[in-house]
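Data availability (excerpt). All sequences and predicted C-alpha cell strings are deposited with the supplementary files. A representative entry, Cupin-like domain-containing protein, is shown inline so that the format can be inspected without opening the archive.
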Amino acid sequence: MLLLTFLLIQSKIQWISTDDDGSSFPKDMNLHVTFPPILERHESMALGHLRPLGWQRRAESPILEDSLKIEPARFYHLFIQGNRSVAFRGMVPALDVLWTDSYLSKRYGHLNITIAKRKQRLVDTLVLLPFKIFLEQYRHDDLYMNTIIPDEMKSETPLPSLINCGTFRNRLLEPVLWISAGDTASLLLAHSTNTLHCVLDGRKDFIIFDVSNQYPNDLDLVRQSNGDLYSRIDVDLVNAYKYKRLHNLPWYWATLREGDCLFIPAYIFHQVRAHGRTIALSIDMSPIDTREDFNGNDCEKNPPIYVPLNKGKFLWRYEHGTRHLSKQTITNDDARHYLLLLLGTNDQLYKDIFLEFFRQVTYELVKKDTTLPTADDIWAQLSNDENNQEYISRSRLKSVSSNVLQLLVDVLQKSVRIHEYDKSEL
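C-alpha cell line:
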C-alpha cells in the first residue's frame, strides 16, 4: 500500500504557454445546488441511468460531525482506528476575502503550479504553468489546479492543530492546493492515504461509499502505481445498467463550505463535486499501523485550532515545479522512516511501491547523474536476507543495518540538494 498521493500517477508533465482568445464562456458559478439529489423514478428506466453519481440510490445519512475541540487521542481511537469519516465545521479560517484572484496573482503569480483538465481522468496530462496564467483562464477554460502548495504560500495557509502533534505529526505527507471554477467532478476513487480535506472558499459535495476494503470488481476499478484505486465509471453520466451494483451500495454525504474539513480514511471510496469558485486544501497523511497506541506526548491540552501550514513537517515539498523531499539532510533514521511510511498498515513493503517512491525522489537527479544506482540495485541490497524478492517485511525494515541503508541515504541526499549543486556549478 503506497502512502504517497502523487499528483497524478503515470502522468506526463508538460510546459505550455497559452493565450486566452476570449472565445470560451464564463463558467456557471452557482453555489445553490440541491444535494443530496432528489431522485427521479421512471418505470421504463433503471434508477439514475445517465444521471450523475448519487442518483442511483438514496443517501443513507450525513457524515458524522464532531467538535472542533476533539482531542487527538479521541480522533485517533474513533476515526483512525475505527476507519470512519468525520466532518468538522469551522476548523480552518475562510480565505475568500484574502485570497481573491487579483491578490493571488499579484503575490504568487510568478510561481509555477500544476493544472489538469476539469474532469479528472485515470491517465491525464498535467501542465506546468505560471499561477498568474492559470488565474486568468480558469473561470473560462476547462482547467483546475492541483499542486503541492509552494513554500511561499504556506504562511497564509492554515494547518489544523489536531493533526500537527503526536502520532500524526511525523506522518504528514504533503499539502495539496486545489482551485477550480464551475461544476468540477472527481472520479470515484479511494486514496492510499488518510486525507483531511478543508474548503477555504466555495463549496464541495462529497459522496462517501460504505465499501472500504471490499474493492468490488463490478465498479470497474483500476489500481494506480501509488496504490490509489479509481473507477472507470463516468460520474456525470452513469450507466445504471452496467453498474447496477450502485443501486445496492449505501452512501453517505457531506457538504463543505468555507472553513469546513472532512477526514477520509485510506481506501474509503468517495467522489467529490465542487461548485462555483472553490479553493481547497487536502492534507495527505500516511496510514497508521492501528495495532499501535496513540503517542500524544507533545500534544497541548488547549492548542489553537490551527497554525500556519509552514509549522507542519511534511515529507514532500514543491520546488522548481517538482516534488522534493522536505528534509535537506538525510540520515539513516530518515531513510528507515521513509520506508516504514511506505508500509502503511501492511506488514510487507512491495517492490512496485518502492520503485514508484524512488522514481519520484530521483525524477530530476537521473537526468544529470548517469552513475546513480538504480532502484533495483537498492532494492536488492535492502531485501538481501528475504526469501521473497517481491516484498520486504516490516521486521526486516526495522532491523536492517545502517550499512545497508547507506546506499539509499546517499541517493536521497543527492536528490534533495540537486539545486544546490546546480548553483555551485554556475
